[in-house]
Structure formats: C-alpha cells, structure tokens
Amino acid sequence: MKAVILAGGLGSRLSEETQVRPKPMIEIGDKPILWHIMKTYAGHGVTEFIVCLGYKGYVIKEFFANYYLHAGDVTFDLARNAMEVHQSTAEPWRVTLVETGDDTMTGGRLARVLQYVGDEDFCMTYGDGVADVDIGALLAYHRQQGRLATVTAVQPPGRFGALEIDGSAVTGFAEKPQGDGGWINGGYFVLSPAVAGYIEGDASVWEREPMERLAAERQLSVYHHTGFWQPMDTQRDMRQLQAMWESGDAPWAAAWR
Fold first, then answer.
1. What is the pTM of this model?
2. Residue 178 scores a pLDDT above 90
3. pLDDT above 80 for 165
4. What is the Cα gyration radius of the chain?
C-alpha cells in the first residue's frame, strides 16, 4: 500500500512562513507537518510515500536527502573526505518525490504521479493537516464498499467559543463546540488507479469535477471520522497544533509518540 501526499500548494494564508519553505515543511515541534502525516500512515503499516512537489519543492528534497544524516550520530573524516553515520534512527520509509509543477491543480498533481502508484488501490491526503484517522479501518471499509474512491468525512470544530445562555443570563461557556453539524472533505482518501479517467489535465481540481463525477456515478464512498482532525490553514491553526505538541496532548500522535 502506498500513500500519495499533495505537497505542492502555495500556502498563501501562511505567507509569513511560506516565503522561505512550502507549507508542508512548517514545523510542529521540530519536525515538518509532512513528517507528522507520514508517521500517522506508518503507524498503520503504510511506509511507501509519493509526495507531489510544487512550490519550493527543493526544500522537501533537501530534507529527505539529509534525513538519514540528521537522524544519527556522524563521524566526518576530513582527510579522506569520508563520512560514517552511527546508530541512525531514520524511519524505514521509501519516499518518491515528484515535481508536479508550481501551478498544477490538485487533480493534475495526482494524475502526474499515478505512474509511480502501480495497479493497486492507494491512499491520498493533503500535506497540511493532521488527524487520528484509523487508516487500517479506512482501508477495510474501502475494500468492503467496492467503489473506485473513498473520502473521509469530518465535522470541523467551531472556530469560536460559544456562550451558554438561559434567558437573559449567561450560564457557562463552551470552549470549542462543533460546527454546524455538516460533514466536509477531510482528506484521507483511498483511491483506485482508475480515477485517472476522471482527471482531464493539469488544470483539473480533484475536489471539483473528478469527485463530482465519481459521486454522480455512485463510485465515491464516505468514511465518517469522528475523532481528531485539524488542518493548518492559518497562523492560529499553527499555534494551536504547536501548543498541543508541546503539552504532550497531540491526538494525532497518540499511537506513535
């Protein structure tokens, strides 16, 4: 099983951070959010990744090019121009990094990497959010349904705290109530390679025509996730995830931290 991660977007709402690096490389703790997403998949046995690069993709390449080095103790023999890495803690992952273009849309990025996916169903998600989705259960559900695609649906938390009111009196406060009760696309897809037939080219936005056609043809299943899910769209989101990590209460990392 392989996982495709979309990591090529501009991340304009985090421009203070993304002027020098792509959004998936913004760090939570001392690791990029991309790494946190990969750890989630690896915790469920998915250890082969295909990352769709775009904006400042070279930063992601450099991270993985030096990953083994950074994850261990190193001896440099300057006289012989040699290096020896000791006791590396690098994860046993296989990571394929694919240049999919700065301006390519999400569907186009997916189409460009399908040659690396093979003939089997695969996972796909976005490189800018974390969740405690049970990937094993998601895969089992997808296979049970027998459709070309499965999308994980989530209910996002409310953005602001709410007042609890009785008549003219405030009786309490709800810290972060759920939103309006609607379900939205939370990423964490499972797809058949046959979805290639629903993507027209680089300008294809996966969340529009391809998903709409799959739904119209009843080829899109929905997996409901009621646990933790949080995108990193704004500075506020970034600070919230960082605070969770520092406090030790990071639900997305509970299985592997």
1. 0.90
2. no
3. no
4. 20
Which amino acid is it at 143? R
Quote the tokens at residue 175: 């810290």
Query: Please, which residues have CB within 8 angstroms of residue 216's CB and are 6 or more apart in sequence?
Result: none
pLDDT at site 239: 94
Q: How far apart are CA 29 and CA 242, in angstroms?
A: 6
d(C-alpha 165, C-alpha 94), whole Å: 54
Taking CA atoms, 123 is separated from 195, 221, 253, in Å, by: 12, 14, 19
Tokens 């990423």, located at residue: 187
Q: What percent of the chain has pLDDT over 90?
A: 77
- The first and second tokens of residue 195, run together, are 């979805």
C-alpha separations of 100 from 6, 234, 238 in Å: 10, 24, 26
What is the structure's pLDDT at 171? 73
For 10-46, the pLDDT digits (tens) are 888 888 888 999 999 999 999 999 999 999 999 999 9
